[in-house]
Amino acid sequence: MKLLKSFKFKLIFKTEQSRKAAQFAGCKRYVFNQALEMQIQRSESGQKIWSYAELCRQLTDWRHDEETAFLAKAPTHPLQQGLKDLDRAFRNCFEKRSGFPRFKRKGNRDSFRYPDQKQFKIDQPNSRFYLPKLGWVRYYNSREITGTAKQITITRETDGWYVSVQTEEDRNPSPQVIENSVGIDVGVAVFATMSDGVKFNSPLDLKIVSKKIANSQRNLAKKVRGSSNWRKSVSKIQKIYKKIFNVRKDFLHKVSTTICKNHAVVIVEDLKVKNMSASAKGTIEKPGKRVKAKSGLNKAILSQGWSEFFRQLEYKLAWNGGRLIKIAPHNTSMRCANCNHVCKENRKTQSSFECIECKNLENADVNAAKNIQAAGLAVLACGENQLSISSKQEPTVMASCLA
Ligand SMILES: [Zn+2]
Asked: Among the residues of 263-320, which ranges form H helices?
């Protein structure tokens, strides 16, 4: 199987290089917006919109046109990639996967990419990249790049420029052991609880984080839009988000690596189906005032964390020949994992579960994780037909064969 990996490093641009990079990103945005404008005009006048190849020919014209000759200063391939992005955006729109393509605004995640491995060089021993029209660029070499580099993307973030290298390598997965399975319940109070009782607590205190964001957003609202104080406030908020993102990413990688090392099959609930609003209200201890307003933010932070967690589990399991199974939630928090009795009264408090039928006493999250594990194993036992659906694009298995 082909293993796709992505490596990200911070770049050390010289002043001239960062000026050029901003220019390239600007050219790519210009090309994207011009082409989008053109496509809109064509479609409004009843003409068929241009294909990617036709757009590329248009790009060549622009590069030779005196008025838009500045485009010739940027490397061709990244500009063509801008057109490819537009082409994909239209296709996604036609196939109803997303809305109509929108114009790109300045500073809104500036980026450009080199799609051809013949175009760039990676010199790891000397911690540098060679990029067309930028020359040698140094980077903070924090880890080894493995596999064959296929594509390089340069992105501007709040604190500077970054490079992502997408690589590909062949890996023969070892055969999976079904017995080695675990169910995981994700929640607001405890980030993840495994059916064997192990818990992972998020390093982010959501109360503190959301308070910080709310405070700085209030601060921002007082400033005059566009003023230098306003800009300072914006950059402060961006820094907070970046910090949250980094802390969470680090935590998620550690947890998912630990889990995938020891388990071949991991079973989770499909969050698209799971109704999280109830738990957001009920599980944060002693909800204060304005919990409703805050819970939106908490939920956003959490749900992003969960889906990223599942994404990491999925690809890390696949490296070792394992798999992630998503099941439809089905009374997982109210069912007794011991005797299968389902009723509301089983759940005594947020954290404890006491079955009124068999008197089984268990931590509520562990009980739920056990139910999730059982549901997943039942799906596995139902046969590979169900799973072949799951192993395609959407790895969701509806627990239709569950009792
Ligand atoms: Zn019971």
From this structure: 277-282, 291-319
Residue 365 catalytic?
yes
Give buried/exposed letters for 91-102 (b at 16+ CB in 10 A, else e): eeeeeeeeeebe
85, 270, 314, 365: the catalytic one is 365
Alpha carbon of 272 to ligand 1 centroid (Å):
28
What is the per-residue pLDDT for 328?
87
User: Helix-strand-coil percent breakdown of the chain, rounded to 5?
Assistant: 45, 20, 35
402 domain-assigned: no
Is 185 one of the catalytic residues? yes
The pLDDT, as a whole number, for residue 53 is 94
**Cα(279) to centroid of ligand 1, in Å?**
23
For the cut 50, the answer to whether the pLDDT of residue 98 exceeds it is yes
**Domain endpoint, select from 170, 205, 231:** 170
**Distance, CA 342 to ligand 1 centroid (Å)?**
8
Q: Which tokens in the block code for residue 367?
A: 């009980």
Residue among 85, 87, 185, 270 flagged as catalytic: 185
Instruction: Look at residues 122, 143, 170 and tell me which one is the last residue of a structural domain.
Output: 170
Q: Residue 261: give the domain boundaries.
A: 181-397
Q: How far is CA 388 from CA 4, 27, 106, 325, 397, in A?
A: 21, 44, 43, 11, 9
List Cβ neighbours of 246 (8 Å cut-off, separation of 6 or more).
none
